């Protein structure tokens, strides 16, 4: 049984289901949402590509999610934002709060250029909740010499659950590249959430590189203000280029609950995620963290490139997780940068959205992470449409009638019986993206392609295929999920 839930698609004139060889039993239910913009004033015929599910401000450019956290019962999301237009530049930390991660209240920017250490931009960073419950933000600033330096900001009023005002440290910058520490002044950014070691010292990592070697530079502090660079990076990898937006956190080996960032020991594994500036892809590894030596070691067999494990194989970058203390889960945010041109972005007045927040946990095998849209997203479901089970043969198509909304949430199950028809998975087929591009929706296989045609015009002259193929591996069957945009509009 294959399940595909929360498949968010937009502007479907109708759905079609496409099937390759074999016999497939299909059961599908469809949930249609209307007028669910983050800012409903922009939901009009003049803005057909604005989303109804994803977080986005009414206008202008956004990119990296920064410092998500929970404080006094409210979720906080900070993100990179250009208040002056729909292209990158003039970056500040925009700020919104929510009670449910679905409905958001915007506030004035939390951090904006005002000190020499950030006068040319307030770039990405992270939030840390200190032991007394006080939030702290560490972020990358661009100084007058265009050096990348690290700064600290604290809330002005801790009794304000919305944290609407922030005060920058007079000691900024707290960390900066120098000739002594041999850090590249243009490759030193995006501090992580800090964690406490058994020696009561804070630790964090900052993304960097030396030539083509990606680095997670480690810093330590006793007071969260005075930071000292460790002699060795937490981890590095050859030929990966600049590591942006690193994220380092533990996951429990027991169950789906998240754990605080400072937890270590035999009941957790650690995750190191990096965003690759060269390819604009991300990858993560699972491994162990030696808190005494301050060294992270990926599990044996880990692939350290964007051919390795990834959260997402679509447009998804600069991701950031946080531990939701209210519901004991780890939540993943990520930035989606569309494929539209700069000209089109300026014309429509906005660019970028945040991905649907996802709960993250370790698989039962312990070899990869599992993710699922947060349960709160389901409150948006309405106008339920159910398609009864259908037995379909290879080459069949069926229109799902009654879906007229601009966007829909599809929850669909496939039951496949003819596994003997599955093609053998070749050992050289290790890159799922390459395999998807070589075997598009029009290439017939043993078991597949089968799935959905979305964004489909009448007659199917134009459509986007979201489809599956099943292969026979050494000891199990492998499911490949792909999208084919060869018949999609630009």
UniProtKB/TrEMBL annotation:
This protein's record includes keyword Hydrolase: yes
UniProt KW Transmembrane helix keyword: no
Gene Ontology MF terms: hydrolase activity, hydrolyzing O-glycosyl compounds
Similarity annotation: Belongs to the glycosyl hydrolase 32 family.
Protein's recorded name: Glycosyl hydrolases family 32 protein isoform 3
Keywords: Glycosidase, Hydrolase, Signal
SMART domains: Glyco_32
Annotated InterPro entries: ConA-like_dom_sf, Fructan_Metab_Enzymes, Glyco_hydro_32, Glyco_hydro_32_AS, Glyco_hydro_32_N, Glyco_hydro_beta-prop_sf
One annotated GO biological process: carbohydrate metabolic process
Pfam families listed in its UniProt record: Glyco_hydro_32N
Alphabetized PROSITE patterns for the sequence: GLYCOSYL_HYDROL_F32
Residues annotated as signal peptide: 1-20
Domain Glycosyl hydrolase family 32 N-terminal, chain residue ranges per copy: 54-373
Highest taxon in the source lineage: Eukaryota
């Amino acid at each position: 049984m294959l399940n595909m839930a929360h498949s968010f698609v937009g502007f479907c004139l109708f759905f079609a289901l496409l099937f390759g060889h074999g016999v497939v039993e299909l059961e599908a239910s469809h949930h249609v949402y209307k007028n669910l913009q983050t800012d409903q004033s922009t939901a009009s015929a003049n803005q057909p590509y604005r989303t109804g599910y994803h977080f986005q401000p009414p206008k202008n450019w956004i990119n990296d999610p920064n410092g998500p956290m929970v404080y006094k019962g409210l979720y906080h999301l900070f993100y990179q934002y250009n208040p002056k237009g729909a292209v990158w530049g003039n970056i500040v930390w925009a700020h919104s709060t929510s009670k449910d991660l679905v409905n958001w209240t915007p506030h004035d920017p939390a951090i904006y250029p005002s000190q020499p250490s950030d006068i040319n931009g307030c770039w990405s960073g992270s939030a840390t909740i200190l032991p007394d419950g006080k939030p702290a933000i560490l972020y990358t600033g661009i100084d007058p010499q265009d050096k990348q330096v690290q700064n600290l900001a604290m809330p002005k009023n801790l009794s304000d659950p919305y944290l609407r005002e922030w005060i920058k440290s007079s000691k900024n910058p707290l960390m900066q590249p120098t000739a002594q520490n041999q850090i590249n002044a243009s490759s030193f950014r995006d501090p992580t959430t800090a964690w406490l070691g058994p020696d009561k010292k804070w630790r964090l990592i900052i993304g960097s590189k030396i030539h083509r070697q990606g680095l997670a530079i480690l810093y330590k502090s006793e007071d969260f203000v005075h930071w000292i660079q460790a002699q060795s990076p937490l981890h590095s990898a050859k030929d990966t280029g600049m590591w942006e937006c690193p994220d380092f956190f533990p996951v429990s080996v027991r169950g789906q609950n998240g754990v605080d960032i400072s937890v270590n020991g035999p009941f957790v594994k650690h995750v190191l995620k990096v965003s690759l500036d060269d390819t604009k892809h991300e990858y993560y590894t699972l491994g162990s963290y030696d808190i005494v030596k301050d060294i992270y070691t990926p599990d044996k067999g880990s692939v350290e490139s964007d051919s390795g494990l990834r959260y997402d194989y679509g447009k998804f970058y600069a991701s950031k997780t946080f531990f939701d203390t209210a519901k004991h889960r780890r939540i993943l945010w990520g930035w989606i940068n569309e494929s539209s041109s700069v000209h089109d972005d300026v014309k429509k007045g906005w660019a970028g959205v945040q991905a649907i927040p996802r709960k993250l946990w370790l698989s039962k095998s312990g070899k990869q992470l599992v993710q699922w849209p947060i349960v709160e997203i389901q409150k948006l479901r309405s106008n339920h449409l159910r398609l009864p089970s259908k037995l379909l043969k290879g080459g069949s198509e069926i229109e799902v009638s009654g879906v007229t909304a601009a966007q829909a949430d599809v929850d669909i199950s496939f039951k496949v019986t003819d596994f003997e028809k599955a093609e053998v998975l070749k050992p050289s087929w290790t890159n799922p993206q390459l395999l998807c591009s070589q075997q598009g929706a029009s290439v017939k296989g043993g078991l597949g392609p089968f799935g959905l045609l979305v964004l489909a015009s009448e007659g199917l002259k134009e459509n986007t295929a979201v489809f599956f193929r099943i292969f026979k591996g050494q000891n199990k069957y492998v499911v490949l999920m792909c999208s084919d945009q060869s018949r999609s509009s630009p």
